[in-house]
Amino acid sequence: MAKRARSGCFGLIIKLITTLALLGALAFGVLFGLLIYREHTLPRPGSVDAMIVLGAQVNPDGTPSVQLEWRLTKALEVYQTKRTPIVVTGAQGADEPRTEASVMREWLIARGVPPEDIRMDESSMNTRENIANAMQYLPGVKDVLIVTSDYHLPRAMQIARDQGLNPSGVGSPIKPEYWWKNHFRETLAWGKYYLQKFIPIP
Fold it and tell me: What CATH number should be reported for the domain whose range is 44-198?
């Protein structure tokens, strides 16, 4: 009798695990589809009063990674059409020789952006901190342009909306070989976003 009970309990656990795995896969698929949809249906940028450029990996020699340089190139293109304050954001990772923000500032200055137009946030470690810390340098500004990689832009803009801003966005490309990896990770990040939004996690 006890053996049969244990067998039944084990079978129930297997069914529960299988059900949870299927629900998880379904949720991931939905979030992945929403990510692709959002990425390709972003509105055209409107009138803005400032620009926030989100950081990315810095190379061991202190130069921007390809992904970061593409973000900076896009920001520079926008700046050259309309001069606005720029906030560059990003702390120093464990494998980075300098803060991302300082590398970004140096890159922009080397290409003609006046130093007085650039503010640096060297303390933010994630997208939410990027936006919140950047706005400390832009008191009273609501209409901001966010520049980041295309797959990351929808979530960055949503976080900006959550913080009371009216964001526009411009996305830079990524290397094709990193497309699946970046979109997989970003889908998980959206899952975390929704969990924290509806079920606050410390």
Answer: 3.40.50.620
